[in-house]
Amino acid sequence: MDFLLSQNNLYILIIALVSGGMLLWPNLRKSHGSSGVSVPEAVQLANQKQAVFIDVRSAEQFKTGSIPQARNLPAADIQEKLASLPKNKPIIVVCDQGRDSARVAATLRKQGMADVFSLDGGVRNWASGGLPLSKKA
Fold it and tell me: Can you give the residue ranges of the Rhodanese domain (predicted)?
């Protein structure tokens, strides 16, 4: 027991515990209801389950570059257009950095939609992953 309580070893123990916590944090966050998906997970959902991308940015931002096949539905209009969203396919909500999409995804889940996800990092993360963006005229 003296080994653990000596000054130098105590620092090592604290560093090990903090490092372990930091490694476990992403998994703990996902298990507590967070529905964010990474870019590779989003691509996999789109390819395997025909997930639909809903871009909740403004029309002006959408035109500057969006995920191919994404549908623009500004966050302000989401309640009005709720009935037009597909019920039988997963939905991946996208915004610029991931904050607005997480909020909209939570709103959609509260409205009873089951397979709703938010793209972690948004369109910026998509582009930094080397995936294409389409520009609308």
Answer: 47-135
N residues, the chain: 137
- Fold classified for 36-128: Oxidized Rhodanese; domain 1 (3.40.250)
Per the CB < 8 A criterion, the answer to whether 62 and 132 are in contact is no
* pLDDT band per the 50, 70, 90 thresholds, residue 32: very low
pTM of the model: 0.74
Q: DSSP character for 66?
A: B
Give CA–CA dist 115/131, Å, rounded: 23
Q: How confident is the model at residue 79 (pLDDT cuts 50, 70, 90)?
A: confident
Domain residue ranges in the chain: 2-31, 36-128
Q: Which residues contact 86 (CB under 8 A, 6 or more apart)?
A: 52
CA dihedral sign, ordered 87, 40, 133, 78: positive
- Could you tell me which residues are beta bridge partners of residue 54? 71, 93
